[in-house]
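job 3f2a | input accepted
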Amino acid sequence: MDYNNAYEQEIDLKDLIFAVLHRWRMIFGAAVVLALLLGGYKALRTYTGGNDESAVLEAKAQYEKELEAYNQRVSACEREIANLEEDISRQEEYLENSILMNMSPYDVWEGKTELFVKTDYTIMPELTYQNQDFTATVLQSYQSALTNAEFIKDVAAKEQIDARYLKELVTVTVGKSDNGYNNLLIVQVRHTDEKMADELMKDILNGVKQSEGRIQSVIGTHTITEVNRSLGSLVDLTLADRQRNEREQLALLTDSLVEKNTNLETMNQEEMPKPVDASSRSTVKSGIKYGVLGGVLGAFAVMFFVCVTFLMSDKVYSAKELKSRFKLKLLGILPADETKKKNPLDLWLNRLEGHSGSKDMEREYDLIATNVFHYAGEISSLLITGGAREDKIASVAEKLSERLPDIKIVSGGSFLLEPRSLKGLSECDGVLLVEQKGVSSYSAAEQELEKIEDLHKNMVGCVVFE
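job 3f2a | predicted structure (466 res):
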């Protein structure tokens, strides 16, 4: 038998971390207790200390700030509701009265007239500098004259149409080509009725005649001649898309109004900010702050205590450490208390640490007995001893006696403490140590191994209760 009695202890950070985590109840309890004590003490001191001027001013400023923010939110919501109601009213009026919005996209009466504008501008090749061409200016002047608000208002009054809705029916564009303007002025008029479309076109052309003299006197001499004129019914799917978009806009406005009304009702149901007593506010604030501080300090204090205890303690923590320290044959690992029901957090920590959640005890004892049979050799008697509690040692001895009838199993406590067990050690051929996490110690295990070696006994192995 050879064990390492010159073992240099190394700190296993994993074991240290799990030793701390397994004390979560103690950590949580200390955090809660210290949080209540420190927070309650500070709150009581603050409350009994009375109001100071700075606390009163702070509470007053906070109240005024909260009240102002509340009033601003309510006022802003009310303004948005008023604006939405006005927008909805205008949109409904527009959809109801607009000629364009009530026009069938599949039966649109459109009048179209093309007017040709000719000026006296000519290109003189023999001259380096040419006269300025005012044709584009003349075309744009006619376009402006036929679409300005005053002219549209006069035509609308004559035809008894609202000027807002007439403007949608009249389109005046300047013809263009790849080289620029092509001297054409294009007038388009739309209406649901053929006669009204024709009347509107006549009114627009009268406007052309009325503007001709003024534009000639201001800009330059020119002639404007009607080239093409047509009136007919057509299908305009673009108009259908525009009508659909306008109705969708009304639906969006309505949804926004419902949402804003709901928000206003929610704000009205909220309790308005009230002045907070400076003493109460300061007491709560101090209590919470020092309560959190106390909880953190309590948790860290317990974790520090657990770490120090783990590092300074000589108690067996894991079978892995026992095996690596003394080079023992580990015959089996058994749960220290298989009857105690563990909560989910402890079970989860055990799984993370590598311990099985539940074990078949009979199967474990079968494996231990098989290992003993292989490692025991020709021995006829086996002493079951160690630093574990006597009931654990007796349990192992009983189970192995049932499974190893050819070997005399002797059960005894630690032969370091009991003479009877030490006598049994001298009479038996082999020894099986039973150690227990948190009960056995590494120093005692080392003494047990030294005694076994001194008596030249066969060290079969070790069973550990974790």
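job 3f2a | The longest helix spans residues 53-97.
job 3f2a | closed
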